[in-house]
Input
Amino acid sequence: MDKSGTKKLTYGMYTKIPNNQFGKVIAEYIWIDGTGISVRSKARTLNSKVEKLEDLPEWNFDGSSTGQAITEDSEVILKPVFYCLDPFRGGDNILVLAQCYKVNEQGQYIPVNTNFRHFATDIFEDVAAHKPWFGLEQEYTLFERMNATATQPLGWPLGGYPTAQGPYYCGVGTNICYGRIVMDLHYKACLAAKLEISGVNTENMPGQLEFQIGPCEGISAGDHMWIARYILGRITEDLGLGLSFHPKPVKGDWSGAGCHANFSTIEMREEGGYEHIMKAAETLGTKHIEHIELYGIGNEKRLHGAHETAHIDTFKIGVADRSASIRIPSQTKIDQKGYMEDRRPSSNVDPYIVSSILCSTILLEGKQVDQMTKHYRNWRKEILN
Output
């Protein structure tokens, strides 16, 4: 057995050691770093089982090491907002999702560069009566390894290309399906964590896969998605594989990666809902440019009018049409109620942004997104500089 295999075997043995015989619990705190797509985490010991969110203490980290603070004022506060079971450590151990804040001289909490959940919270509070549901379809690409020169997706021949797209989507078999072990391990781990994961499948490009989060109501869609992304990162880490959420991971005649957002309100799900759905879809068209700006970095490389996408400069509504910006499922039209699918968001989109801006545009006439958009633009300037 090679060193890597020995290392994994040894790690597996250590994960089986119980830690809560005396009431101790390991809490893995997770947060979004300055890139807006990568997550960081660190663990701490709690003296008792966590029964409610309020049991979790605030914590802090060195923001100068994550692109979220300067060295001279590096402390960033972690404020827990969601927790679930830890599928890796098991028992009463938990994963904790936290928002990131700086504290100013007046003691006020100021959201750091990638804390878009802070702004989404007010929007979701204002639309709570409409009971917005989301189903998010997260596509991702696996690589043989991840380093500065990694360009080979999982299963691709070294220095070459596989057979053209066609047999890979939901495919089965050697030379067709790559990464099923990752997909299935991730699926089971998310279920063990009690996340709302509803399915998985392989995608059009070999080495590209997808999982779906939802249905979730309100801000919980973003909470579950970020933890699911973290779990996927941990699994690929243990298997020695690279993971990418880039919307166009391979140049050329290959599909990009998106995070389609399925959306409905209680009005859309009840009798006569189709009228609400079509009105909402048309309203989204009036704010197409504003949505595209917030729908992910590098999305223009993916939305080029081919590979089941509408061109980034075009807004189109269609029934059962995967070349549309907004797809209306066939069953929705038949039932005259249901949901719509926004196919524009990229795979690296922040789920808090896409879910809250859909609610704002459709239900609040675009209100309360100005602060989030300003925050987003300031963050983008940080990245470009």
